[in-house]
Amino acid sequence: MKTIRYSQPYIDNSDFIFIKNSLKNNFITQGPFQSKFEKKLNNKFGFRYSILTSNASNALVVSLKALNVKSNDIVWTSNITFCSNINSILHLGARAVLIDVDKKYPNITYEILKKKLLKTKKKQLPKVLIITHMGGIAIDMKKIWKLSKIYNFKILEDASHALGSRYECGNYVGCGKYSEISVFSMHAIKIITTGEGGIISVKNKENYRNIKKLISHSMVRKSKKSNNIKDYDVKNLGYNFRLTDFQCALGISQLKKINFLHRKRVDIANYYIKKLSNQKYDFFKEKIHFHSWHLFIIRLKKNINNKKNKLVKMLNKNNIETRIHYIPNHLHTFYKKNSNVIFNSNNLRNSISYFKDSLSIPIHPMLKIKDLDRIIKILNSF
Question: Percent of the chain, pLDDT > 90?
Answer without folding.
Answer: 92
